[in-house]
């Protein structure tokens, strides 16, 4: 199960898809937290502004540090982020 609560998250969006699952992720290059919409492969990068979103495709650069090759790794367990401020706390399950 995702760590992110779909209902809470979608309250801040203008559009939604039934199939969307929101995953809390971390970039492997610079260790920033973001939310991935696993259905339409969007990446939300600013908890305070949901308009700051990028599409994840093969040309995508890290939206935080700008490197060409980056991976986003899903956080699957709250234990992984114990005592870590992700900025996305308001949307936790
Ligand atoms: Zn980065």
Note down, in words, how this protein is organized.
This protein has 93 residues and is mostly beta strands. It has one domain (6-12, 20-91). Helix content is 5%, strand content 22%. It has one helix and five strands; from the N terminus they run H-E-E-E-E-E. It has one helix at residues 6-10; strands at residues 22-27, 33-37, 42-44, 53-55, 72-74. The chain has a five-stranded antiparallel beta sheet with strand order 4-3-2-1-5, with no helix packed on it. The N and C termini lie close together (9 Å). The structure holds zinc ion. Zinc ion binds next to loops.
SSE order: HEEEEE
Q: How many strands? A: 5
Q: Give, in spatial order, the strands making up the sheet with the most strands.
A: 4-3-2-1-5
How much is the radius of gyration in Å?
A: 12 Å
Whole-number total of structural domains: 1
Question: Major β-sheet, in short?
Answer: 5 strands, antiparallel
């Amino acid at each position: 199960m995702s760590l992110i609560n779909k209902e809470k998250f979608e309250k801040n969006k203008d559009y939604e898809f039934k199939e969307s699952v929101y995953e809390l992720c971390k970039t492997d290059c610079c260790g920033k937290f973001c939310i991935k919409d696993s259905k339409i492969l969007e990446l939300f990068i600013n908890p305070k502004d949901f308009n700051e979103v990028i599409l994840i495709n093969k040309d995508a650069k890290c939206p935080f540090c700008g490197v060409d090759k980056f991976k986003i790794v899903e956080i699957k367990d709250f234990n992984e982020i114990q005592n870590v401020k992700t900025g996305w706390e308001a949307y936790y399950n």
